[in-house]
C-alpha cells in the first residue's frame, strides 16, 4: 500500500478499508491512557497517502506564506526552531466525525462509523502561527488563512481555512507544531509539520503543512467545501449529490467543537458483576467543548433523563498552568496567559451499587461555560458530523 513506510499499533481499530488509514482505539484503551494520549493510540484521520519524509530531510522541510501579505515568506523547519519562539501546550484534537456511528445506526450518513474514541490529547510543541503571520504582514483586506498539506488526493491537496483574526488571537492558541509529547511528529500525525487549531474540529488542523495562503475569502479547496460541514437535516445523500448549492454555503462549515461527553467506565453493554461489588461503583468518562470554552457541568442520569446528578470534574490541563519548569520539550509552556480551555476533562461519580442494580442504562450530558448543552435528540446530517446528543451506555447486571 502507499503507506508501507508507516508503522502502526495493532491496538488501533481500522474504520475504513486498507487505505487510506483511519482508526481509533477502543474507548476503554483510550481512557486508560489518561490525559495525554500516546502517539500510538492517538486517533488517525487520513484522506489519502501519508507523505514520506526521511528524518535527514526534516530540517529542510519548507512551507510558504503567500497571498495577501506584504512580505511573502518561505520558511524551513530548522528556521522555525531557531528564529522563532517555540511553545508547548496541551491540546485535544477531535474529529468532527467522533460518535458518528450512532448517526449511522439511525440513518446511514456519507461517513464511516467512528465510535467515541475519535478524540486524543497531546502536548504539542511548535510556533504560534501569529508570530509567523506578523513577519509576513497581512494586507488590510486579508481575512482568512488557507492551509494546504502535501498529501495528494483525488481532488487535489488537502486544504481548508480559518479566520485570520483567530490566527492572530493568542487566546486561540493556533500553532504550527513539529512535536508531540516531546517527540517529533509521527508520519500519521503530520511529520514533520502541521497546523494545530485548538477548540475546533480536527479537520482544520492541516497535517504535512506546505502552504499558508492569506486570502479575502474562505478556502476554495475541495475538502474545505465538501467535508466538515453540517448540512440541514433534510438534505439526504441524493439531494446532497444533486444540488451543489448546499455545499457552497460557508455558514454550514464547522469550526468550534460543541459540548460532548461520554461514559467510558462501564463500557457500553458491559456485564457488571454487582453481586460481589463493593458498596459503590465509580462511573467515569470524558467531556470536552469547543472554542476554548470550559466544561462547567457534567450530569448523569440513571432513569432515562428524569433526574440528574453531578459528576465530579477533573481539569487535568490546569496542572500545566502552574508548572514549575516553564520550559517543556524545547518550548515555553504557553498556558499562563490563557484563560481558555483547550483540552478534554474527566468526570467521575460514585453510585451506590444498590441503585445501579435497578438501572438499565447510564446517560451523561455536559454543559459548557456558555451554557451550551448536549441535546437530548440527535441532529442527523448527511456527513454525520458533530454528533453530540446525550450519551447512553446500556448495562447488564449479573444477578
Ligand atoms: N491534513 C491533511 N493534510 N490531510 C488530511 O487528510 N485530515 C484532517 C486533519 N488534517 C487531514 C489533515 C482531519 S479530518 C482530522 S480529524 C485531523 O487531521 C486528524 O489528525 P490526526 O490524524 O493527527 O488525529
From TrEMBL:
It comes from the Eukaryota. Mo-molybdopterin binds at residue 95. Homodimer. Belongs to the nitrate reductase family. Nitrate reductase is a key enzyme involved in the first step of nitrate assimilation in plants, fungi and bacteria. This is Nitrate reductase. It comes from Didymosphaeria variabile. The lineage of its organism: Eukaryota, Fungi, Dikarya, Ascomycota, Pezizomycotina.
Amino acid at each position: 500500500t502507499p503507506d508501507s513506510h508507516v508503522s502502526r499499533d495493532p491496538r488501533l481499530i481500522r474504520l475504513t478499508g486498507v487505505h487510506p488509514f483511519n482508526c481509533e482505539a477502543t474507548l476503554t484503551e483510550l481512557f486508560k491512557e489518561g490525559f495525554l494520549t500516546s502517539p500510538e493510540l492517538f486517533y488517525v484521520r487520513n484522506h489519502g497517502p501519508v507523505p514520506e519524509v526521511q528524518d535527514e530531510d526534516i530540517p529542510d522541510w519548507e512551507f510558504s506564506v503567500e497571498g495577501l501579505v506584504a512580505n511573502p515568506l518561505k520558511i524551513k523547519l530548522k528556521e522555525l526552531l531557531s528564529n522563532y519562539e517555540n511553545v508547548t501546550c496541551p491540546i485535544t484534537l477531535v474529529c468532527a466525525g467522533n460518535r458518528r456511528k450512532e448517526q449511522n445506526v439511525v440513518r446511514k450518513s456519507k461517513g464511516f462509523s467512528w465510535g467515541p474514541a475519535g478524540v486524543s490529547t497531546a502536548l504539542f510543541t511548535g510556533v504560534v502561527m501569529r508570530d509567523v503571520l506578523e513577519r509576513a504582514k497581512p494586507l488590510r483586506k486579508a481575512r482568512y488563512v488557507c492551509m494546504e498539506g502535501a498529501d495528494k488526493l483525488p481532488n487535489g491537496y488537502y486544504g481548508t481555512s480559518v479566520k485570520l483574526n483567530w490566527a492572530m488571537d493568542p487566546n486561540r492558541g493556533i500553532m504550527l507544531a513539529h512535536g508531540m509529547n516531546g517527540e517529533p511528529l509521527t508520519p500519521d500525525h503530520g511529520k514533520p509539520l502541521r497546523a494545530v487549531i485548538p477548540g475546533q474540529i480536527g479537520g482544520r488542523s492541516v497535517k504535512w503543512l506546505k502552504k499558508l495562503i492569506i486570502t479575502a475569502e474562505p478556502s476554495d479547496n475541495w475538502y474545505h467545501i465538501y467535508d466538515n460541514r453540517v448540512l440541514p437535516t433534510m438534505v439526504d445523500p441524493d439531494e446532497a449529490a444533486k444540488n451543489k448549492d448546499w455545499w457552497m454555503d460557508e455558514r454550514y462549515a464547522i469550526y468550534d467543537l460543541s459540548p460532548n461527553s461520554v461514559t467510558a467506565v462501564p463500557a457500553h453493554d458491559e456485564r457488571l458483576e454487582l453481586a460481589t461489588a463493593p458498596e459503590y461503583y465509580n462511573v467515569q468518562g470524558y467531556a470536552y467543548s469547543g472554542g476554548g470554552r470550559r466544561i462547567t457541568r457534567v450530569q448523569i442520569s440513571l432513569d432515562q433523563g428524569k433526574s440528574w446528578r453531578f459528576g465530579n470534574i477533573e481539569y487535568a490541563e490546569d496542572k500545566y498552568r502552574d508548572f514549575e519548569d516553564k520550559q517543556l520539550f524545547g518550548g515555553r509552556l504557553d498556558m499562563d496567559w490563557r484563560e481558555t480551555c483547550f483540552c478534554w476533562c474527566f468526570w467521575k461519580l460514585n453510585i451506590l451499587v444498590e441503585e445501579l442494580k435497578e438501572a438499565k442504562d447510564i446517560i451523561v450530558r455536559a454543559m459548557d461555560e456558555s451554557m451550551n448543552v448536549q441535546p437530548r435528540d440527535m441532529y442527523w446530517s448527511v456527513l454525520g458530523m458533530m454528533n453530540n446528543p446525550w450519551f447512553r451506555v446500556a448495562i447488564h447486571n449479573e444477578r
